[in-house]
Fold each of these.
Amino acid sequence: MNVRFDPATRLRGTITPPADKSISHRAALLGAMAAEPVRIHRYLHAADTHSTLAAMRALGALVEVQGEDVTIRGTGLREAAPVEGPIDVGNAGTLMRLLPGWLAGQDGRSYTLDGDASIRRRPIDRIATPLRAMGATIEATRGAVPPFTVHGTRLQGTEYVLPVASAQVKSCVLLAGLTAAGSTTVREPAPSRDHTERMLLAAGVPVTRAGDAITVASQDELAFDAITVPGDLSSAAFLIAAGLLVPGSRLLLEGVNTNWTRTGFVRIAERMGAIVLGALEQPGAELSPGEPAGDLDVAAGPLVGTVVEAGEVPLAIDELPLVALLGCFAEGETVVRGAGELRVKESDRIATVVEGLRGLGADIEATGDGFAVQGGGGLRGGALHAHGDHRLAMLGAVAGLASREGVEVVGMEAADVSYPGFAADVAALV
Ligand code: S3P
């Protein structure tokens, strides 16, 4: 589906961005691992998180959808049902990387995971290595990618040092740690999103964080009250960028997750001169159960270039395409370094962002682990191909609103993976 986004004169209004994708995936998964029913308030109803509900059903959980809410009656930690044929993760990298942490502890049962064409290009050795160290057997296509099979066993706890900061890999190992004998520690080279740790704390698991080390121990069961999912900062970020770039704009975004491990993009934008008012959690805040949420008030204004270094990357990983877009409109140079992980997202986001924005008139170069933008010229407009990547599709839309001639997004339906109401929300603001 091709959709045109014309230049906008000013954006005004109030939007409640969709529920958080990362937190919804985790709520469904931990709900299925729990012994008692869990009610999830404001689950994300989008393609990715529906893949997770389908997978949990296949594994024996009862899933009931009541409007925006979902109730899950789980199987317990060690009683996932056997599944005939592959579990389809669709386009969901988070499901593909977290679920094996649970499955690896299902003694004597084997599970195969597969997904769409993008999933079949995404590496799984990063989870296979620690799960093998804990005792599981993993067989992957060409030793590296889906479809892959996890043979569950009685796991042993481990201490695993992540070679690259990744919340997905950290979460996978922590979930495996719940069924493994003894304790399991993950060390991360830089902080990454901590939703799994917070949700486990809320489920009564004594998770500790000391410096770069996160530790869990073997559990009998998880016990939740209800889980409430806040708005997704990564989805809100597209509207924040639109509000910053379209002259005269003023937007209010309600109920957004303000967890400090997710708000790196707001701090980068503020360094570029952006005005975003709202009570964000302080960076480095102590680990606590639950997720903070708040309202963000965004106003357009002039921006200057900035440099994003490796340590900041995990806290803004999914928003780095938007940093490139802001860079096109900012005075001077904007550089992102240490972001080689972008190459293994839903698309190679260094290649697709650079090619996409260059086609709209940007002065942008790819580097091995990021990109450099010479800003100030704004964007002419043209066509941008989403390459089946939801964040590329929404990037093209925001670029169109801020451009001189508008942008035709080729493959706009990709946005349904995380933000099915995106085009309608944009239309409401124009
Ligand atoms: C996610 C972690 C990040 C992020 C992805 C969601 C998560 O991936 O890019 O969209 O929910 O844990 P990595 O762990 O590969 O950095």
Amino acid sequence: MPERLGPPLAAPLFRRVAIVGLGLIGSSIIRAARHLGLADTLVAIDRDEGVVARVRELNLADEATTELAGVRGADFVILCVPVGACGAVAQALRPHLLAGCIVSDVGSVKGSVVAQVQPHLPEGVAFVPAHPVAGTEHSGPDAGFATLFHNRWCILTPPEGTDEAAIDRVRAFWAALGSNVEVMSAQHHDLVLAITSHVPHLIAYNIVGTAADLETVTQSEVIKFSAGGFRDFTRIAASDPTMWRDVFLHNKDAVLEMLGRLNEDIALLARAIRWGEGDKLFDLFTRTRAIRRGIISSGQETAEPDFGRRREVEPDKASETGPEPRPGA
Ligand code: NAP
């Protein structure tokens, strides 16, 4: 179970924070920011009337609207929309952004988001891109929970020349949400995340798709015997189709580079199996087991059965704690 959030801060970090896109990530940020008192005013903006109505019902924000003009007067704006939508949203926001405002995002790809967003920001507005490396396979405002980012990494990829004070303020915001913050270049981020998150998702989508297409194994057998490993892939393969389509289209080069490496390694494994080279398989599986243990001991995963994801959450804490987040996305 993720730990509970700490007490509210003595003073808010920002005057007016606007979250654009109240899905899993946007609604988790706003829940945590509300609980911790990170802003005098929290504004929720979503293009969908139904989402805005739900935000009001859940009492997640001080203001909830479908109008991008809601960002007016904000000193911190966070884009929580799919990677492919960031440029258009930034362009539409432009007339409403004031000098001194910091714009950020949460996109799972950084190089493309920087290229899409930066040209639209007016003079005096700093851009500090961010990627919280935390998520679940669920979407929408009901899927969010305040502890999602607790003890997870948040990577900042400020373009060269970004105002240091703006970087520090965004760092303080994510640290308040419980994240460990690291700064790196967008290009490096995209390469690292290609192998730690994007390619694993592609493999999960692929393996579940292949199993669904098999003619010699029935659908009911796939479900019945899924505990053999397949089940864990199905959870990842249930992730949001729009988000992941955009991730692959916008991190094309790094994903293709990593897929090339993976194909070579899979060919070597196939060869080892064909020629009965058990020592090669054993050595690899021993190395990979050590990697899993390293992830557990660093607190990025639990060693509990079912990854601790099946545990019940007390109803009154559900919006704060939610299910066990998975570290990658
Ligand atoms: P989500 O739950 O599907 O929410 C996305 C929100 O963006 C929805 O409110 C959606 O509105 C809105 N939206 C979609 N297309 C839009 C457009 N063209 N213009 C304006 N708004 C649009 O997705 P999420 O999981 O929160 O992901 C949001 C961002 O976080 C993505 O960039 C993703 O890469 C990043 N991220 C996700 C995870 C994860 O595990 N899910 C982890 C880290 C980072 P509609 O409902 O109307 O489409």
